[in-house]
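Q: Hi! Curious about what Betaine-aldehyde dehydrogenase looks like structurally. Here's the sequence.
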Amino acid sequence: MSEIHSIHIDGEWRAAQSGQTREILDPADATTLAVVAEGGVPDTDAAVAAARRAFDEGEWPRTPVAERAALLRRVADLLQRDREEIGLAESRDAGKTWEEGRVDVDDVTAAFRYFADLVAGESGGRVVDAGDADVHSVVVHEPVGVCAMITPWNYPLLQASWKIAPALAAGDTFVIKPSEITPMTTVHLVKLLAEAGLPAGAANLVTGAGDPVGARLSEHPDVDLVSFTGGLLSGTKVARAAADGVKKVALELGGKNPNVVFADACATDEGFDTAVDQALNAAFIHSGQVCSAGARLIVEESVRERFVSEVAARAQRIRLGRGTEEGVECGPLVSAQQLAKTEAYVASALDEGAVLRSGGERPAPSDVRPAEGYFYSPTVLDNCHRRMKVIREETFGPILTVETFRTEDEAVALANDTEYGLAGGVFSADTARARRVAARLRHGTVWINDFHPYLPQAEWGGFGKSGVGRELGPHGLAEYRETKHVYENLRPAPVRWFSG
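A: Let's find out. The predicted structure is below.
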């Protein structure tokens, strides 16, 4: 299999300066999908230098906003042109189903179009009333500069778009480092940016490991902003590295997300079916490898046994397999490492007293094809409590834990009893109660009688250790800008503050 020159610097595709490469594995069967360049510090420095030149001397930051918006729309059109190809690549690279890959492409397209429309509709700034007819005062927004972007392995293309689209809309240049295990669709996206007419040097890509590439980007003196999506441990390292340069930092560090189900949501057969279906959707989409996964089911005690029994029964019927196969509902975990972590979390939960209601093991070879992949059965763990490791930590696997409550106050306390605060759900037939509970939850996104949908025009991010800053929405664009106040005296005259 030939090597893909996956490092893109100043408009050129290159091999790593060291000549090193990395095999990208298909998680469905552990075979090699591609061989890509394994970048290092020299490649990273060259990419940052190209982005710096493009920002300081190039045309993109000075391109009129209407032209920037037009380019983003061209990228959106190209994404739809290549929808099947990119969706397949995302499926094979990350292990998700092909249909999930197609949906990701549609969501990425929507993000590019949203930010194009957002900046295209802007005026020349916000006029500030100074209370003086002889003063013209305006607040304007300018690009922040060179942006370093570090993206995760679970939604490679989507997370790249949440950073690239607003950065380009703002007039920034960037260097992006995708996860070393799922880089393929980011490579494709950078090719589309060039095809759409983005000037050389505005978009740069370095494939390689977090250390050294991500570490160097975080500390580099010529980087103005670091945007990172990933785990808490890595995120804190990024923040420390960026601190010495007093860079802007945006961090999305995952969550331990509650899904609160009140008994009144299950009062009818339709309500019960919906709440059970959504609990499965919350926990097991993409094998639970989702930062907003509803991995903590918090259900009212009076319906607990009926509800958990049905969730466990349906979890056992989820069809596992290669994401491109017809009828497959859930693919493998992304790597052998992630599979081992999932097994360790389940083992620790059982040691601490959890009751296994479904799953808890790798599927039998006869139950899944191909049998060599990193598959793990959707797992439901009952009788869980806050002291358990599986409750406190983000598992990022197909694990659903069950806790119970009796009162509304107890439900809120359980849902908020986490260091994270990314997302949560509330299911109730009582609209007033649902909205009341949603208002009390300390999470950046709260769904009522639903789980997982997001809108590009609505901000995404979390409270607590789920991160700093927001992506998407107007605030997502603001992350990639600096705000400047221009105060103009229309009739200058001496102030005479000093007598001399």
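A: A fun detail: The radius of gyration is 24 Å.
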